[in-house]
Structures are given as structure tokens and as C-alpha cells.
């Protein structure tokens, strides 16, 4: 995992302005859609979370993805990233807070109150 991480960082430094994004096809990889409204809402939610994740600084995004997507333990994340466990925990906490703030709907937008 460390090799992949370091290779990724090297590539990102070299190709920072040429970042290639491959779209994840939910229809191909996801569960069968229940109905068009539910599917559309799910696609919008996924896109919103993905955009919010992409806006996080790399050091926060990295630990968040390793913990929440890859389901690594704090110790495993520390081993992969070369960080102290306390730093991993701190970054995770801050990453979750930043993601939560980015996903919050501002007052006046969204549902009618």
C-alpha cells in the first residue's frame, strides 16, 4: 500500500495540472435501480459527496478514504502513510469536520421550512 501511495503522490506532483478523472459508472457498478426518482437522487448524492471529497486537501482526503472506503484501522493507516497514530486520528477528525461542513446545506437552500 505504501508503494502505491508514494507512486500516486509522485504522479500527482508531476501531473498536477493534467489530473485525469475516470467517471465511475453507477449503472454498471451499482445495485439495480429501484425507480427513476430514487436513482436520480442517489446519483446526485454520490456526485455531491465526490465533489466535496475532491475539494478536501490531499492529506485529509487520504486518511478519510483509507478509513471510510478502504476500512483500514488507525494503525494500518499510520503504517501506510508513515504518520503517528495521533496524527491519523487528528486528520480523520478534521477531515470529517471539513467534509461535513462542505456537505451542509446553507440556510435558505434545499427544503422549504
Tell how many strands the DSSP assignment holds.
0
Helix and strand sequence = HHHHHH
Write the CATH homologous superfamily of the domain at 46-102.
Answer: Winged helix-like DNA-binding domain superfamily/Winged helix DNA-binding domain
Shape designation: globular
For this structure, what is the CATH class of the domain at 46-102? Answer: Mainly Alpha
Which parts are unreliable, with pLDDT below 50 for 5 consecutive residues or more? Answer: none
What is the count of DSSP helices, taking H or I runs of 4+ residues? Answer: 6
Helix/sheet category: mainly alpha
CATH topology of the domain at 46-102: Arc Repressor Mutant, subunit A
Overview of this protein structure:
This protein has six helices and no strands. It is mostly helical. The chain has a domain of 57 residues: Arc Repressor Mutant, subunit A (Orthogonal Bundle). Helix 4 crosses helix 6 and helix 5 packs across helix 6. It is globular.
Amino acid at each position: 500500500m505504501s508503494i502505491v501511495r508514494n507512486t500516486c503522490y509522485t504522479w500527482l506532483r508531476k501531473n498536477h495540472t493534467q489530473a485525469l478523472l475516470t467517471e465511475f459508472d453507477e449503472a454498471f457498478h451499482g445495485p439495480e435501480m429501484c425507480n427513476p426518482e430514487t436513482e436520480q437522487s442517489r446519483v446526485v448524492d454520490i456526485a455531491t459527496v465526490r465533489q466535496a471529497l475532491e475539494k478536501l486537501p490531499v492529506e485529509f482526503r487520504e486518511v478519510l478514504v483509507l478509513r471510510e472506503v478502504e476500512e483500514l484501522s488507525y494503525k494500518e493507516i499510520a503504517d501506510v502513510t508513515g504518520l503517528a497514530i495521533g496524527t491519523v486520528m487528528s486528520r480523520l477528525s478534521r477531515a470529517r469536520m471539513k467534509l461535513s461542513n462542505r456537505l451542509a446545506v446553507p440556510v435558505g437552500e434545499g427544503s422549504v421550512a
